[in-house]
Design goal:
- With 309 residues, the protein is of the alpha/beta class.
- It has a single domain, classed as NAD(P)-binding Rossmann-like Domain (Rossmann fold).
- The chain has twelve helices and seven strands.
- Strands 3-2-1-4-5-6-7 form a seven-stranded parallel sheet, with helices on both faces.
- Helix 7 packs parallel to helix 8.
- The model has no long low-confidence stretch (mean pLDDT 91).
């Protein structure tokens, strides 16, 4: 057997081994309750309270509801007091847990001292950084964004600064107690960021990278920090899209994503979103970045938005 024969045989075994490991890792995701089990008392063990930003509806409300149903008191934060009060009443009456509300517009920076003061005496075991916003309901090129200067400030404040500031407020207590969970909601678009959503996707890439780095820094302190990167979830931000095999309800997505809380520093949160992410990663960026693809994307979103209104 000459050198070239040996090389190609070795290469073949390496490829088989690589894809075998990938298949094994995928099979683990099919059975999270087997590979990543969490006891019923898992979140209660972390602390008495959970804090959820944008907790008055959508994914945030679903997280608040699910955590409360597992025996944790919750603090929900959002900018509209009426919606917060309605959500708090519904969660409290359904689960029997305490629910506190804090009114805060996260597109501004002035609320964090007040938030920190309101939370200082609470034993917080879970933080869900869920708040986020799109620069525009219809995708567009960066310079075509309406009120661009103001929008830049709002998106960075809401999608980036809020997550970092809330971690700065709550992480020290978790580090001191050597336990806690931080869930930072990013987006599936980070797997292959498309144009026309440039500001939004850049902010969500930051969420993902910050979360992974922070987990590396604090995993030996007993704190779980995870970026959750969903694709379609039917929420107010997505125009309450019709649910289907890919577009999940907030409740179903949250129940699924919490099963993967011990699966690593990043998760798509569901099998269907994981498969979609792998497929999108296989698309060369050059295809997504063509002018014709951008035009089709914009037309598609306009059409679906019009159908929902």
């Amino acid at each position: 057997m000459d050198f070239m024969d040996l090389f190609f045989i070795s290469l073949g075994f390496a490829v088989l081994f690589y894809y075998g490991v990938k298949l094994l890792l995928f099979s683990r995701m099919l059975y999270p309750e087997v590979w990543f089990p969490t006891p019923n008392s898992f979140f209660r063990f972390m602390g008495e309270w959970a804090v959820v930003t944008a907790g008055s509806d959508g994914i945030g409300k679903a997280y608040a509801f699910e955590l409360a149903s597992q025996g944790i008191n919750v603090v929900i934060l959002s900018r509209t007091k009426d919606k917060l009060d309605r959500a708090a009443k519904e969660i409290g009456e359904t689960t029997g847990q305490k629910v506190k509300v804090i009114v805060a517009d996260f597109t501004e920076e002035k609320h964090f001292a007040e938030i920190e003061n309101s939370l200082k005496d609470l034993n917080i075991g879970v933080l869900v950084n869920n708040v986020g916003m799109l620069p525009s309901s219809i995708p567009c090129k960066f310079l075509e964004t309406q009120d661009l200067e103001e929008t830049i400030t709002k998106v960075i404040n809401c999608n980036v600064k809020t997550m970092v500031k809330m971690c700065r407020i709550i992480l020290p207590g978790m580090e001191k107690r050597r336990k806690g969970v931080i869930i930072n909601v990013s987006s599936g678009v980070v797997c292959n960021p498309p144009p026309l959503y440039t500001l939004y996707t850049a902010s969500k890439v930051f969420v993902e990278r910050f979360s992974c780095g922070l987990q590396a820094e604090y995993k030996d302190k007993g704190v779980i920090i995870q970026a959750v990167t969903p694709f379609g979830v039917s929420t107010p931000m997505t125009g309450h899209m019709k649910t289907n095999m890919i577009t999940l309800s907030p409740e179903n997505f949250v129940k699924s994503s919490l099963q993967y809380i011990r699966a690593g520093d990043k998760t798509y949160g569901s099998i269907c979103h994981m498969v979609l992410g792998w497929l999108l990663q296989a698309i060369p960026p050059q295809v997504l970045h063509t002018e014709s693809m951008m035009t089709r994307l914009k037309c598609h979103v306009k059409k679906t938005t019009k159908q929902r209104t």
